[in-house]
Design a protein that fits this description.
Blueprint lengths: L1 H9 L3 E5 L3 H13 L3 E5 L2 H10 L4 E5 L7 H11 L5 E5 L4 H9 L4 E4 L4 H32 L9 H13 L6 E4 L6 H10 L8 E5 L5 H9 E2 L11 E2 L1 H4 L4 E5 L6 H13 L1 E2 L8 E2 L3 E6 L3 H7 L4 H7 L2 E4 L10 H16 L5 E2 L1 H9 L5 H15 L4 E2 L1 H4 L4 H7 L8 H30 L4 H7 L4 H11 L3 H6 L1
Parallel strand pairs: 1-2, 1-3, 3-4, 4-5, 6-13, 6-14, 7-10, 10-13, 15-16
Antiparallel strand pairs: 8-9, 11-12
């Protein structure tokens, strides 16, 4: 019997209860302890988040209405720090709008005071079962990843699920694939996943960056040449089309190929033979072609800078990769992935991010997409002085700052310099100000007068701040 008790204590699940009322906290702790759970308590949201970053919890139970950081703010931050942890919201304000707001922001469940011990235990058990299913599902995906070429992808959003499905649909065929998307969205990663899931997976995957090679060299690299065919050709060279024989050839940045090379590429794709530079004997090829671009090829066709016949030849199966700003739901997974990666590589234990840093990242547009986010996290891990990344560790730059720091740009006048510095200060504080104002409005049921009073501002000044930050109460309530 004693052994069973010891095993139960060793396997206790951790739950944290966040409520500003001591009676509620202690009552909840006793209910959970009686069921064998390890329960901790916190009187406010900020203290709770500190504990959550220091240790792992299986469930978070938080009151909705609390002074300072309310339950919705706690919920949103947890969804960034530990997205797999279920959060149960408790409130004495049993309204439909509160429940909808909580569930929309990722709450697992929602219960109203007064509540019975049986109801609390039932909700907690369901939350733990849900988390177990999530972990099992995630583990299954991790096992699937390396074999199916998805180990490099991070993201569970609907947008990325479409990409995964499309890859699995097209991979077994030999059809040409055109991958489009902004810089940093993972075009080569997608091409490799297509190859890994294809019937050619045991054969070579050859990637060519068409934008990094000069025109004369690109043609030689693709098609090969024979010794003496041009000045400097002291040896014969096999082209990458032939290197990729029976495998996959990936042409990245295909929009950079000249019209002359486009014509030769078109002939190769039509006839499935190529002739190395300086040679007269055609060589048969057997490749699966995947191409990628971050440029609108249709617009290039209209301008006459890209051959229409080649465009139709390569645009057999398109895959459009979403920019990070359109899949912000994947941000928590990406942040955790890169934090773990670079903490390990650099040998520095960084356990999480401060709420201010998370707010800055959520407000940022990521023009460089996932690649830029990875660089930001790596830099922050290197620069942060403690074990938590703060806003200034991110060192995000605006367009104005890039101009200010670019030594090759046109020199700024004194007035331009002052204006640039002013805009930089405004850009740095804007995400924090916006979060502050919206939270004040939410806490006061979107009543401007009460929100202004709660923040210690005059109503006209609060209105002016709303206008400056571009906050529409109607739009925010819809969102």
């Amino acid at each position: 019997m004693e052994t069973c008790r010891q095993e139960k204590r060793q396997n206790k699940l951790n739950i944290i209860v966040v409520d500003d009322e001591a009676v509620i906290r202690e009552g909840m702790r006793r209910i959970l302890a009686a069921e064998g759970y390890q329960a901790e308590t916190s009187a406010d949201g900020r203290t709770a988040l500190e504990k959550i970053q220091e240790q792992d919890f299986d469930v978070v139970i938080t009151d909705l209405k609390m002074p300072g950081m309310d339950g919705i703010e706690v919920l949103k931050t947890i969804k960034i720090l530990q997205p797999e942890v279920p959060v149960i919201i408790i409130t004495g304000y049993s309204t439909v709008s509160s429940a909808v707001d909580a569930m929309k922001n990722g709450a697992f469940d929602y219960i109203a005071k007064p509540f019975s011990p049986e109801l609390i235990i039932d909700k907690v058990k369901k939350a733990i079962d849900h988390k177990t299913l999530m972990i099992d599902s995630f583990s299954a995906k991790q096992e699937l990843g390396p074999d199916h070429g998805f180990d490099g992808f991070v993201g569970e959003s609907a947008e990325m699920q479409k990409v995964y499905r499309r890859i699995l649909q097209v991979a077994p065929t030999d059809s040409t694939v055109l991958i489009t998307g902004e810089s940093g969205t993972g075009k080569e990663l997608t091409a490799r996943a297509i190859h890994t899931n294809s019937l050619r997976q045991e054969r070579p995957f050859v990637a060519v960056d068409c934008g990094s090679l000069p025109e004369t060299l690109l043609e030689s690299e693709l098609f090969g040449h024979i010794k003496g065919s041009f000045t400097g050709a002291i040896h014969s060279k096999m082209g990458l089309f032939k290197v990729a024989d029976r495998g996959t050839l990936f042409l990245d940045d295909i929009s950079n190929i000249s019209l002359a090379t486009q014509a030769k590429l078109m002939r190769v794709l039509q006839e499935r033979v190529l002739t190395p530079i300086g040679d007269t004997q055609p060589v048969p090829i057997d490749i699966r072609l995947v191409v990628a671009t971050n440029i609108n090829l249709r617009a290039m066709v209209t301008k006459g800078t890209f051959r229409e016949d080649l465009f139709f030849r390569i645009n057999v199966i398109p895959i459009q990769l979403p920019p990070l700003r359109e899949r912000k739901g994947d941000l928590p997974f990406l942040i955790r992935h890169f934090l773990k990666k670079y903490s390990g590589e650099i040998g520095k234990e960084v356990r999480g991010m401060a709420p201010g840093a998370i707010a800055v990242l959520k407000a940022y547009e990521f023009p460089g997409n996932v690649r830029e986010l990875e660089n930001i996290i790596e830099r922050a891990v290197v620069l942060c002085e403690g074990d938590v990344i703060r806003g200034n560790d991110l060192e995000l730059r605006s367009v104005e700052e890039e101009r200010y720091l670019d030594l090759n740009s046109v020199p700024l006048s004194l007035e331009e310099l002052k204006e640039t510095k002013k805009r930089l200060r405004e850009r740095a504080t804007e995400p924090i100000e916006k979060a502050f104002v919206i939270n004040a409005l939410k806490r006061n049921n979107w009543n401007v007068s009460r929100a202004a009073e709660a923040t210690g501002m005059l109503r006209p000044n609060f209105h002016a701040l709303l206008k400056k930050l571009g906050i529409s109460i109607i739009e925010e309530q819809k969102g």
